[in-house]
Every structure is written in C-alpha cells, then in structure tokens.
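Q: For a teaching session next week I want to show students how multiple molecules come together into a single three-dimensional assembly. I've collected the sequence lines for a complex. Could you give me the predicted structure tokens for the whole thing so I can convert them for display?
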Amino acid sequence: MELTINGVQHQLEVEPDTPLLWVLRDDLGMTGTKYGCGLAQCGACTVLVDGQAVRSCVTPVENLSGASVTTIEAIEQDDLGKRVVAAWVKYQVPQCGYCQSGQVMAATSLLRQHPHPTDQEIDAVMVNLCRCGTYNAIRAAIHDVCSDPTHGST
Amino acid sequence: MNDRLKIIFAIIMPISAVLAVGTTWFVNRIPASRFEMAGSAADEPSELVARGGYVARLSDCVACHSVPGGAAYAGGLKMATPMGAVYTTNITPDRNTGIGSYTLADFDRALRSGVAKDGHRLYPAMPYPSYAKLSDDDVKALYAYFMRGIPAVHQQNRQSTIPWPLNMRWPLAFWNVVFAPSGVYHPDATKDTQWNRGAYIVEGAGHCGACHTPRGLAFNEKGTDSHSAAFVSGALIDGWYAPSLRNTPNTGLGRWSEDDLFRFLKTGRNEHAVVFGSMAEAFNNSTQFFSDDDLRAVAHYLKSLPGDGTREGASWHYEPTQAAAREPAKRQELPGAQTYMAKCSFCHGADGRGQGQWVPPLAGAASSMMQDSSSSINITLNGSGRVVAAGVPDAYRMPSYREQLSDTDIADVLTFIRLSWGNRQSVVFADDVKKLRDQTTPANSSPVILKTH
Amino acid sequence: MEAAPVNLSRRFFILSSTGAAAGAFVLGIGLPTRQARAQSAQAPTFRGTQVPAFLEIRPDNSIRLQSPFIEGGQGTFTAMAQIVGEELDADPATFIVENAPAGEEYVVMDNGRRVTGGSGSVRRGYLVMRRLGALGREMLLQAGAQHLGVPVSELTTQPGQVIHAASGRAVPYGALAHAAMDLPVPDPANVKLRDPSQFRWIGKPVKRLDIYEKSTGKVEYTVDVRVEGMLHAAVQHAPRLGMTVGPIQNEDQVRQMRGVHSIHRLPGAVAVVAERWWHAKRAVEALLVDWEEAKPGSADAIRIMPAEFSSEEFRQHLARATGQEDDAETKGDVNRALKNAHTVIDATYFSQYVNHAQLEPPSALARYNPDGTLEVWLPTQAPDMFRADMAKRTGLDEAKITIHSPLLGGFFGRHFLYNHATAYPQAILLAKATGRPVKLIWTREEEFLRDVLRPMAVVRFRAGLDAQGRPVALEVVSATEGPTEGGGTKRGKSLDPSALEGLTNKSYDIPDRRIAQLFVRSPVALGYWRSVGNSMNDFLYESFLDELADKGGQDPYELRLHLLRHNKRLTTLLKAVEELSGGWKRGPFTAPDGSRRARGVAMASPFGSEAAAIAEVSVENGRVRVHDIWEAIDPGSIVNPAIVEAQVNGAVALGLSQILLEETVYENGMPRARNYDGYPILTLDRMARVHVKIVESGEKMGGIGEPPLPAIPPAVANAVSTLTGRRIRSMPLSRHEFAR
Ligand code: FES
Ligand code: FES
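A: Of course. Below is the structure for the complete assembly, covering every listed component.
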C-alpha cells in the first residue's frame, strides 16, 4: 500500500491490520515515535494524522491511504511545532524523555485547534502518561506557546 | 441462567410434589432411543470419526465440557447458581469417570433427551432441547468421535453443590414433557436446501437459541424455530445481552448482508461489529471451524428471519451529532464526553465510526442501540477476551476500564454513546454498572483456546 | 565502610558484610569474592583519576565526557558536566556526555561499586569528578606551557582556553588536548580545587544538555537501537515464576506465520524471532504452550509463585503473622515506658505492592561478533554488575563483553540486576541460537507479569502518650520482607536496612522506642522502587504520628515542632515549608471556590537529605483532589537548582500516584493488571501545583532524585483524614469510598 509520512510517499508491503507504530519503527526506521503500551493507554506513540493527534499503536495502516501522517521527526518543519519544541526547551520539560515525542505531538494538535487553551482544556486534551511527572512543566510550556505574540500567524 | 434455574425449581417443585407419588414410574422411565439395538462402539470408520469431530465443532461441545488449560472434554466447568454450583461432566471415553461405557443408545438419550445412563435428568443447561434436532447420522458420528476420536481422560466429575431438595432432578421430567421439542429436524419443503441446512445448524447443532432466544418463566426458550417470532430475537445471559439475530434493522442483523454475516462468523469481524463477550468464545472454539458452505447456509437462513420493527423507532442512519465533544471546553458540560474523548476516541474514533473491520463502530452498533445495556457495561468494565482467528490472536483488543472509571463515569460515557451519532437509546444508570462490576471480572489479556484433542 | 546515611550503599551493606554468598542473592548474581575484596581494598586510593579515559576534548573544543553515572531523566549528565566543567574551566554547554562503559577506571564510588541509584550520583561523584576536572585542567596547562614555550606559572585558563596574559596569547583546549592527554596524570593528592565562592556553574540553574534531543524524538533508547543484520524478538513468559516450558501445541502452525524466523524455548519462556517485532509479537502470542508446574527444588534460584497466591490474602497473612522480631533500632526501655504511659494507642497500617511502570518497556540487543566477543545494548543502573552476570551466564571472559547503555526511558529502580526480570539473558541466548544480532522488546503485558514489586508491609504501631498527650514511647513491628533480601531465595544474615528505612532513622524525640522487623517471605519477587523503603514507611509512620496527635489533642504541626525542638536543621526545614505554604492552616476550611479543604503535613529523611511537605486536598465526586503541594527540601548543598526543582516535581507526581491510585493486585498467582488499563498511574489532570523551597544547610550533601517523594503520601493522607474525619491507614485512596 501507499503511505504519506512527513510529506514523503512510501510504498509498503504490510498486512492491512499492522499498526502504524510498527510500520514507522521497523519498516521505515523512524524510532522517534515510541511504544509504551500498545493499548491506547499511554500516548507515547502519538502522531498527527491530518493534524489530529492519533495513537499510532491502535491505528491500522489500512485506514491511512490518502491521509497525511506527521511524526516527531518532522515536528520542526512545522512553524507551530517548532514553537512547541522551543517552549519545551525553554521550560526544560523532559526528564527521561520517553513520553515526550507523544507529548509534543499532542500539544501541537491541541494548539493548532485551540491557540489559547485554558487549564481546563489542557486537562481535557493532554491525557498522555508521563511516569517522570513532567505535567506541570508541560502545562507551563503550552501556556507559553500561546502567550507567544507571533502565535496567531498559523 | 442463575435466576432462571431458581425459577424452574420454584415452579416445578410444588407441582411435582403433588403429582410425585403417582408418577414415580414416569419420572424414572428411560426414554426410548432410536438406537436401542445399535450396541456400543464397534470399530467406527475413521471418516465417521472425522465427521463426528466436525459435528462437535458445530455443536461447540468443548465450550462447556473443557476448562482453560484442562484436558479436552474432561468437564469441570463451573456454572454458578444461587442454589450452588453445577459442574459440567467428563465426556471423554474413560470407562469409570467419562462416558466410555455408554452405548450409542445411552449416548443418544443423553444428547437428545437429556437423560444420563444412570437415568438421572440433565439440567437444561445442557442444550438437549436443541440437540434433539440432530440427525441420526450426526448422532452416530458424534458418538464415534467421542468414543474413538479423543483420548480417554480419568477425571472424576465434581458433584453439584446444590443442596437437597433442590438437587432432585426428577421434576425435570415434567419440564421435558412440556418444553423439550421432540424429534429430529424436519426439512421445510417450501425452502431450498441451503435454507434447511442453515436452519438445521442454527436451531439444532449450533443451539444459537440457547443464548439468543429469550426464555420463559421456566427457563424454556420461547421459540425453537423459524415459525416463532421470539426465536433468536435477543436475550440476556450471564451478564451479556445476546442481540437479536433477526432482520431487525437497529438491534438485529437488518443492516447486514449475508456476506457480512459470513465474514463475521468466519473471521470474527466485519465493518459492523467484532465478536465479544460469550460470542468471542463461540467464535474462537466453534463458528470459525464451520465449512464455508455451512457458514453461508447459516447466513442465508438468518437473513430469512423477519425483523420486528415495532421494537425500535426509526431505522438508524449516521448523524454527526455531538461534534461538540471535540471542543475541550464543552466536554465538561456534556456528561461522558470527556471520558469518551480521553478513553474511547483513540480507537473508536471521535466520530464513533471505528476503524474498518479492525475496531468496531459504536455509531449504529446494536450494543449501543438496544434497550439492555449489559453488554456495553460489561465490556467497558472488563474489556474483551482475545479473538483468535485461524490461530492468530487479534491485533487490537478492548481494554478493561474498571480500575480507571467509576460507576458514574461508565454510566455517563455509555449514555453519551447511546445518544450520539444517530443512536437513540435510554440512559445508563450507575447502579446498573455497580451490579455488573460486582458480578464480573476482567477479561484475560492472553488468548484462551480450549483443547479439542 | 563509613556509617552511611540511608542510601544505596546501605543497600549493599549486606553484600559487603556477608560476602559473595550474599552477592548471589542480594542482586541475583554471584560477585566473585576476590573482586569484591580487591575493590574494597582499593577504596582509600584515589578513584576516577584516569583523565584520558573520561575526557576527550575535540578540535572543535567540544568535550566528550564518559559519565560513571547513567542518565535516566534525573539530570545526572548535566550535573556531571557542571561539576567537571567547573574545575576544568569549560562551559558545561560544550559537553557531550555519555554513559561510560563498564570498567574499573569508571568505578568512582568509595564503596568500590558503580551504581546509579540511591540518589547517589552527584553526592558520591561530587569530589571525584571535581578532582577529575582539575587534573584535566592542569594537564592542559602543562601542554599549553610546552606549546607556547612559557613556564606553567605564567598561564591561566578561561573557559575553553589556556591564556598567556603576558603575551596576550590564547590557545583553545581543542588545540592542546592531543598533547595534554598524553601527559602523565598529576598527583591527585595535591591537586588544587576551586573555591566554592568562585563557582560559575555549580549551584546555578544550568540548562540540561539532553532537552532538545528529548523534545524532538532524537534520543536513542535501547528499544530504538538498530544494528546491521538485526532480528527482532518477542517472548511469552510462563504465567507464574518457576513454571517451565512444556509441549507447544501449535509450533508448526506458528512457524508458518508471516515473518517468523524461528521459535525458541528459553528458561521459563518461549520466544519468537522475526524480521519485524510486530510479527514476532503476534506469533509469540499465538503459541499455545502447556506450561508445567515448577518442580520443587529444581528452581532453587527462583521464587516459585504458588498457583493460589492472592495479594489480598497475603496482606491478611502479614497482619496475623507472629514470630521472631528482629530489632533494627532501640532506645531506652519501651516496655517500661508503655507501662507508665498515660494512654496507650495501638493501630495497624499497611502498604501495597506497586509496579515501576516506567514508560520504556524492558529490552535488550545482543550481538556476537566474529572474534567471539559479545556486545549488549541494554538499560542498566550498574554496568559492571551486569557484565559480571553476563560473563557468568555465557562463560565468556569479562574482557570479551562490551556493554552499551543508552539513556533510560525512566527507571525508578527498575534497572538493577533482578533475576528473571531482565530481558538481556534472553536476548543473549537468542543471538547465540540464531547467529544474528537480536533485539528483544518485552510487551507491556510481559513487563507487568515479570516486574519486581515494591514490598508489602503490615505495620503494628503501639505508642504511649504522656499526660499532656505527647508521645513518649513507640513500638513499631513491621511484618515484611525488604527489597534487598527480597531479590533471591535466601535471607541475609543481617537485617535489610531498606526494609525499615523510614520507620527507623526518624529524628523525633521519642525517648523510648523499639523498631523491629517480623520477617515474612513474600512469594512475589521484590525490588527497589523510587525512594525504596521510605516510599512506604514514611507514609506509615507519619500517618500514625498524626493519629497520635489527634488522640492526644495535639496539632500535628505543633507536635512535630515540639518533637524536633532539639534539632535545629529540621526545625528550620519544617518552619520553611510552613512559611512557603503561607502559614500552617490545617482546616477543614472553605476555599474561595466553595470547596471544603484541609491540609496535612509530613516529613522524611531519605537518602541523606531532609524533606518536609504540606498538602492541600478536597474531595471531588468521591475522588480525592490534591490542589497544592508545598515542599521544603534540604540536601545539604546542591549543584543545579533547576534540576532539583524538576526532581521534586517528578517525585511529587510519583508520590501522588501511589497514594491516590496505585496498587498491584495478584490473584491466582498472577497480576490482575497486565497493562496500564488495569494499573492506572497519575495523569496530568490530577497533578497538583508544586511549590518548592530549597534549603541549603551546608550539611553533608544528600540525594535529590528520591528524597522529595516519601513525605508526599502521608501529607496527603493526613489532609484527607482531617477533611473526612476518617483516619487513612492504607494506600491507595482509590480503595476508600468517599462521599460524593
Ligand atoms: S503505545 Fe500507543 S498509547 Fe501506548
Ligand atoms: S519524561 Fe519520562 S515518562 Fe515522561
């Protein structure tokens, strides 16, 4: 089948029910997207499909033909994503870092749809697990991105 | 089944008490078998044994007569009842603990009349009212299989823990007179052979009615064949609601094609649904092993059963309702919306449409459209057991949410689902969730496959 | 060995005190006696002085530092760059830090071991690494002298370069490194260290070095490593530890599955090797194995998990347990004191089993090279011990084994050497069997099945109050097994300090006391969990202390102040957190938003540091909500306040997670939860605001990764007890029903 990832088209020889996560990690060697649970519980595998945060471990590739997938590897090619990463660095968010690819993707999709999320909206959308407990830093970084004046531009 | 058993006894005991004295001869009489002269297991030809193995798959004997990790057909499955536990029996050819000493006639009496070799009546948990429809040839084949097709296992049967007098089984003789249909399946000359083959499997060997047909006061299936509108019209059993298999558009198979049905029974999934609950077990151990011809016959027959539109309102069509749930700010105002988006949407989709045949839709799903919410509550609390198709466990499974969501959370999210995307159903109450929470346990995350050899 | 505070070295005290035999059970491996002695013999000599082994200064002036301590999110690599950079006179930002390979030259801890844990990295590496930096600087200066042809005395340094003020010449380190690293290392005995008042980086909120890579998915964890010709593997473990592989019903059928390379029988597990992990995972799940019950005696190195084991029944078993009580701490005469007490109070508390649940599942990549050497990539907190174990398992000489340890995707104590709870022995066997490099990743389900657990304890408290209602006598008997003695099958000769830490070593002035352990073997294999014994024992002790305060009509904050009246350091700390929280107000009170709230206070002395916390809680639809945590922490002195604050946040999150949600339940010998669905951990919406106050008392430097945790659960529990009027004697709170 054909799959568009980070703007590049790939021809793949995989069973239709293969999760996007393992196509990314094993077939395409893009290991920035992490496996944490394989059961839609942790969010470590979050990628963007047409701008929406999606958990790639429970996304059969079959349903992705025609869709455009964005992974952490390309996050900085996107202006908003770039600013999310900058805020992550400014607030020194990651600890072990394992959950952070997913956190950054989730935050980017939240900010794309809601440039100025309230705490309540952040609570509602940022449901990825972080065992290191970087939650307060994540919240602060997200607020920082919205306070960024250039923010309206996307 | 629990409550029903209690009811049988409640009703039958008094009646029987009166009649008891005069009728001892009756309740002790051994019904005739059409094989009285046949004697016992001679050297059955191996193709007969093989066919018997197939009939055993059609009849899903293993489901009740084996336990996970146990020897094939050695019995021991516990069926809890309010009066105590009943254990299924060893049906391997072991002479002392199994049915090795059964003649074909003994076997036939147990299978089609519900009377064991020693004359005691079987509880109708054994679907002999359905098996009564089995053809003589299939009974012979089954007998051959159980005598020569499987190893004898020496495993004592466990005594039921039901106390006297409730443990007296002779009153069931009356029950049999009233309810058990007698006689093998008679083809309906007005229907084609495929239809008749389907009817034979659904009404007989497959005993689909045992779960899908509502029961009467005395635990009797309200309908036993295509002539009854109650037949496989949906029923609650062991914490799951077995949906209608009739052509009812919303809560039945109305929107399914024969091919949809065929794929469902062969692969465990299609775009409408994925097997779960007790049906996952029936699929893992039985339906996927049916021949394609038999599966198509089953589909053909079921699609011929008229639906009952009066049971439900307008037939379902997708409505993009409650898109509001996508707005994080609005989720708090809409009960269940936040839980849906945080826990369910990643697999079933923010639009409730699922992911092709891999993750079932909740929009328009029978479980979200039917009055009874047991199945939805049960699977949300406990998740689904693994669906194993052609020996391969499923790629995606339903997690268990009993540890993450309160009774109210679950009631709210299910209510949200039942009011979204064109689904129109009554709300779910926290008490319903609590009841099932206490009665059920989480599904096993590892595949459970019962041995058949 | 120094009388260490409660820290990791104490976990190993048993090891060094009972020798190699103990080594065999302490961490599931046999440490050759000779090596153990050799190391302790070297302890007094200067460690970590082989500068070239640690430092590579590149022509572009970037500095590659081999860190003896592994980075798992706690900021160690950055701290090491700060410490070395401070003395080397190089900006930490120019450092590239890696986890050093196994090897004696990198064993910098005085106890002769190399372990990242017990919050020991900075405090145990501090002096050594400063000295290392200073030695490096001297070598650069000498090289500079030769290069410029001037006496060393005329040279100084500025960050990254050697300066000759007289001639105004400057040579970048990068240009001198080659020559410098060939020079003999100066005598560490009289190397001069920088005066702390002159520090530019130590003590400053220097930015972490790994943040950008971790924010863009560029960091490679073990699960991500790939090598030429590598195969992928997945395993299915026996349902219960000790069971062995029996017949496989469908082996041929599974071998036909797409992508399957081969099927393997391993000790207590079956594995499938495939070209892709997804194929290996699906195939190994498909294997129908007839597992055979453990044959008693056959598995002496293993704890055999009984088929009927239930954690709830085990808890009741602990509560009923009687037998020999081993005193861990005694003072005065507790029996007399209890007899003379005005009131005697008894209560039983318990703590639950918990999982590590680090986000990165266990994995390992093993490769046998043509020259017979073995390379293993894996997450480890103790490379040398792992290598010794590999040598033992493979019969290879240690010199033939190379360990690569990528960054850890969280550890919290998960990556010590736990028998049967690590992936690398399986990966090594599979690499050998297939003749190809094999990367094995455990599914989350297999991780929950084999993870070692934080011990369960049932603690019987008995206290005597005087006429004023103040505690004067305390007897504590904990029915439990410690994580160190819980690794293997035999118990050590001496008490396991990590079993009772947090019940022992409390600073409250209670004249007569006895703290004892009633040893009960746990069928579950045990391990270290962030802040180890303190993570549960401080909850038990500090909650009971509040119960005493209530029974004695005392305010819990005032009572603590009174019991610490002779302890200046802790009095200061307790007052600091009180001030941070805007003054002690216990409640219940009504918050501006109309909710009823209360506050609780608790203290802990873990891993050489001191901590005091106050929590503010309310109950929202029957669920406890923690609004704020104020925590004051005194690690003596610190290296990076920003990292300290991050660590406090992380420890608070884990503390909240275990008091609010976490509990590992076993039924029929198996964990009920096999993934996060059945084992919820803290989520963002339940995280509290965290306010941190760092107090630098100047006392001996303590740890920072674990110490902020233990005071959190009791602070929350005490607040909830005040709010609801119900004394909380067990975790997690999700076990308790609260009115909606
Ligand atoms: S790995 Fe996909 S949600 Fe955890
Ligand atoms: S940073 Fe370690 S899990 Fe989130």
